[in-house]
Write a structure and sequence with these properties.
Number of helices: 6
Number of strands: 14
Strand content: 15-25%
Order of helices and strands: EHEEEEEHEEHEHEHEHEEE
Helix content: 10-25%
Length: 318
Amino acid sequence: MAVPEDLSYQVSVLAIVPLSAVYQTQPPALLQTGTESVDQPHHALDLALPATVQVHHPMNAASRRPVPPQKAVCYVKGTTPPPTSTKAPAPPTSTSSTPQPTGNLPGFDLSDAQSADFWTCAAKTYKKIIIRGYFQACGEGGAVDTNLLTSYKAARAAGITNIDSYAFFCTGTQPTGVACKSPATQISEYEDYITSNKLELGHLWFDVEPASGECNAFNLGGTANEALAKEFTAIMDKSTHKWGIYGNGNTWSPMFPSRSTDIGSNLPLWAVQVDDKPDVGTVTTFMGGWTKAFAKQYDNGVKECSGANPIDLDTFSS
């Protein structure tokens, strides 16, 4: 079908008010539609201004295809055009149900009882704690630390409910001459105490570090220490409790044959790196097959909230 090159425009007036009485004697005005103009005498075009009109291209001359109507704002030449909205569209509402990380929870670990005032004060700052629940007790070969229950109740009464526990098992030859209980016995005593007292704990942590003095820890030599540590972690792997390892990359060797000695890197790591940086992501002193940490001890022997006994400061992933 032939289409004339000189395409005309059609103006559809959408809002009409009688203006004839006002403009009967006035000269024609220029009606603007953004980019197109139409000369009309006011008495012949009665319309309310501003008004919305549709500018129709009946056919595109180049493509020979119909062009959809476009809307334009109509106003009288010499007047202020209606404002154009510049409001940005509202951002889309997220529908993701993926939980956000809760990294760097402030917390501390402790091995001694504290006062009620200490716990009330500490609860204002710290959100997670780790309480010692088993210790070397080298005169007995290892024993439950009953302060676990005392501190657990005090923490919960103060409002701290995110609680873990750690065990510093008997792992060496002792000055007392008393042999350490077997790994199975020590772990069983610890877990049974937790279960019988209905303690709601997150992780249990195996404190792996050398020690000497009143009681010794991991003083059997690198190879024997490795075998003993793996005996503990093999039992932990099968436990119904969630276990992790507390360790310091800078003391891993010569406690074990090398810094890379892996005694259980499938378990989460609570790393010791005393640098006053409360950020799990800043741990760099890895060892034993770990490449990331779950928690970080960044300061130790600190007196907080007028506590009678020092605590160690930590930060946790959750």
